[in-house]
């Protein structure tokens, strides 16, 4: 029963991570219309722009999250989030079981 339970927890964790990712992006301020005013993302963007001389570096973590917030997760990002969620869920299950 232990292995089957761990596999079930990992599967649910993978799905939960994929569902939660867009919600979490929105909560921190990465929305479909851009960065929300007075949000964590706005503060991060401001500090990143100051550090980079007025702009946010292309390809930075901030830029990737902004893209995901505006356009949604790509297939590769969805797979990465699911894989990470499943791995974390599997590790938690292994520790608890």
Automatic annotation (TrEMBL):
Coiled coil: none annotated. GO terms for cellular component: mitochondrial membrane. Keywords: Membrane, Transmembrane, Transmembrane helix. The chain crosses the membrane at residues 44-65, 77-96. GO terms for biological process: intrinsic apoptotic signaling pathway; release of cytochrome c from mitochondria. The keyword Glycosyltransferase does not apply. InterPro entries: IFI6/IFI27-like. The keyword Membrane applies. This is Interferon alpha-inducible 27 2A. It comes from Solea senegalensis. The lineage of its organism: Eukaryota, Metazoa, Chordata, Craniata, Vertebrata.
